[in-house]
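The instructor's notes for this session suggest beginning with a concrete chain rather than abstract definitions. Hand out the sequence below and ask the class to guess, before any prediction is shown, which regions might be ordered.
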Amino acid sequence: MQSDMSEPNERERYEWDVFIVHSGEDEEKAKGIYDELSKQGIRCVAQFCSEAFTPGKSVFDNIVKLISKSHRTILLLSENSKKSSWINLETILAIEQTQHRGGNNDLVLRILLVDIDEKDVPALRTGVLQNVPALCISFKEQNWVEKVKSSLKERIALPQVLHVGSLAHGLVFNHFTGFVTFMVPRLKLVNLKYHMLLPYSCKTHPSLSGRDDASGIEIVTEKIEAFEEDYQGKSRPFHLTVYTLQKGDEKYRFFADMPNVLTAIYELRERSLMSGVDSRLQLDRFYYTYNKVFNHSKNKDYNETIVMLKYDDQKRTYYQELYDALKASATAAKESPTSGQHKETVIYKRDEVESSGADRASAPEVVIICTENEKLDRELGGDIQTFLENKQVRVSAYAGDVGNETVEWYIVILSKESLRDELVSKQCHDILADSIDRNEVRLVIVLRELNTNEVPETINWVTLLNASEPTYLQNILNTVKGGKIEMEHRLPAGDVATGLTSGYLTNYLRHTLFLRSPRDEGHLDLRERMFKFMRENKITCGLIPKMFVICNKSCTIDQKVAETAMKGLSLDDKRKVESFGELRLPPVYLSSGAQQRRPLYLIPFRYTNSETGKEFCFIAEYCTPLRTLYKMANDLPLAGLHKHEMYAQMERFVSLFQEFTHTPRVKDTIGDFTDVVQLVIHDDVGGQTLMDALEDAFSSVNPKDMLQV
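After discussion, reveal the predicted structure:
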């Protein structure tokens, strides 16, 4: 009998229709499901089947085989399976398999709960499993088999269900790398915490100053401290706004903000710019992901600086939320300078269990493993060891005991030669097994002359670094010094490009390109600001009336635009790009809770070609969300973005940018981005010079559109 669970072509593609994952204690339930589905012609496989595990192959290889050769993977979820850290591995591999299959990202994984009381379901579906589709059944129901079959047939897109979300995840890391990492060090200098206000609606306020008559709470701006940081090839202004909250005789000094990136969620929903945006769900994901960021030991320098305040802004005001948090903090400080937290806040903490200082001083932190059969692998291992030891990281030889509590990380050099080395393969599997038992990943793979698609599926979900990249040693250091990584953090991040694209357009470009300058500065739109710059600086060669956004395919930003444009040119090249020093277009100003009246500048450049006689000015800057992708893939292992996925996310960002800006709804409600901004795709990975990429973009400009004064 043929199953109607999958299409005929899908049935031919897979050896099994369903792989049933379960704990040993739940085997009888799993067998019940196996038997009934098999009667329906559905080809099932499970750990208890004789054909499931190939003799001589590792557990990892067998699990990968079962998932990759099955159309669907069912996780039989229970208290028993929740206790098994191996379930995390199978969840990760099932979601990874979804991405590897390509197409429409049809989710492989399903969750099945058998004879579980509905009130107990939320406690089981925590963390990584909370957004994966789940079906509750009882064997006493007559139609439970039909329910399971229906669930298996349903097509569900991967970005809808990853715990990180396709929207919120990108926004978290964009905010973290572009704001928090700059602001927190400043706050520590003035002994202030960062109170992050997270309203359910995701609607933010330009300023927190004002009075709440119902509660009698008043907030006033005390001072604004301006500073600048080099960011993505240009100087970026920041405004640190310090507030004072007063209620009666009580007075508190504080720093707070509603993350501006939340505006993207609010705008997408309110303006119907993207279907299916649930602001509460996205806020929960935003909160969940940020909590993971702040609790990671890699971010211990921010200890006790971040306070997250999630609240229902339909029932409570931010005045009340801040007052309760500030009062609780002040009370706790009086009772004990080192303890006390407001119940509605989350302050990230360092890992609770650490070795003593004496033990850590004498014990190795890192072990390097490579094949003894290849000289180049041994030399690479020596280079890594020398670099790490120079950075005060302890390195020792592998003693064969992966259970050694003192070893924090194992670095394995993988090459074509080591793939044939059975000893290296066994060591990798032993380390992975130990990692899974601990529910934390302690393995870094360094590739030597090996492509990521040659890496066995059993290990391609851990941190992969390529020795051919100039920064690989620093990336190793960042990983091993970052502390442990929970299994959950190795889940693929999904479609983070959606959040990065929507945030970039609605939170930055929309303001930079469509806001007018203040009335006392002429109330100028973008073209008028360009004309003013040309007149004041006597620019007569013309200016292209749009902004060029440079997208490096490598997602890196090493130098400023003018410097990079001249890089790679021969000495006799007649082309030149130069900046105007500190000169900028007249700014527009953006106010958001923590940053009042922050100026947004555009940077002009001059292009000349002495051979053709061409000369004109243009506006350009790097695409900052791509730098966030790079940081996620290289410096932030808990972001869940594998390095080999970074380039695909970059291409998706470009595609979404074009799609979003050409949408009629966007043009009608926000503005016509296609008139004022153009992407410059710079293939620096393939060796293209930025000058050539810019000239390709310039060629699409009609000379008649050039601004002249």
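Then share the key points. DSSP finds 24 helices and 26 strands in the chain. Residues 337-364, 489-493 have pLDDT under 50 and may be disordered.
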